[in-house]
Design a protein that fits this description.
Layout lengths: L2 E7 L4 H15 L3 E6 H4 L9 E9 L2 E2 L1 H9 L1 H6 L2 E7 L6 H15 L5 E6 L1 E2 L6 H13 L12 E2 L3 H15 L7
Parallel strand pairs: 1-2, 1-3, 3-5, 5-6
Antiparallel strand pairs: 3-4, 7-8
Helix pairs in contact: 1-7
């Protein structure tokens, strides 16, 4: 059994849901995951962990700054143990060039080159937004490729859970030499 640290930064909760899902898959594969929001894990030690997965949502064209700080602060450990990064954005649903650009910017800003990277679609939670944010998100959704929903009376989840499961399974398998290396 390997110990896996899963850290994430989220603005609206979808990245937390994905991190919890990854934790469940990692646990099902016989490992011991620890999941923490980076805002509560800034001083957490990665000592004793056999692998690290970090996830961040994208807002206003950038990943969560707390996640970038966490990666910079733990760069030495992240370069020594198997590591993976997952990015959560609406761009991942239909504008992969933009989504990949967010990854490149994150790598440049942090100096971290994860062994494995995944792009996951986020969510539009219109029913949870206030009036102004709901209107702003509708305008953004209508202007983006990928056919994002604009009916503000409902929510849209663009996360492809099968892809999240494969990402987590591949990471877990690589830790025990059951599958492809990272």
């Amino acid at each position: 059994m390997k110990r896996v640290f899963i850290a994430y930064g989220t603005s609206e909760g979808q990245t937390a849901k994905i991190a919890d899902f990854i934790s469940d898959v990692v646990r099902q594969h016989g490992h011991d995951p620890t999941v923490l929001d980076v805002k509560g894990a800034m001083e957490a030690s990665l000592d004793g962990y056999d692998g690290v997965i970090i996830g961040a949502s994208v807002h206003m064209g950038k990943h969560d700054e707390h996640v970038a700080d966490f990666a910079r602060r733990n760069l030495d450990t992240l370069s020594r143990v198997p590591s993976a990064f997952f990015s959560v954005s609406l761009a991942a649903h239909g504008d992969l060039a933009d989504a990949q650009g967010y990854i490149e910017l994150f790598e440049h800003e942090t100096g971290w080159r994860p062994d494995k990277i995944a792009l996951f679609g986020g969510a539009l939670m219109y029913t949870q937004y206030g009036y102004i944010k709901r209107r702003l998100m509708k305008k953004i959704a209508g202007s983006k490729p990928g056919k994002l929903g604009t009916d503000m009376s409902r929510d849209y989840v663009y996360t492809e859970w099968d892809g999240v499961k494969r990402f987590a399974e591949d990471f877990a398998a690589a830790l025990t030499d059951e599958g492809p290396s990272l």
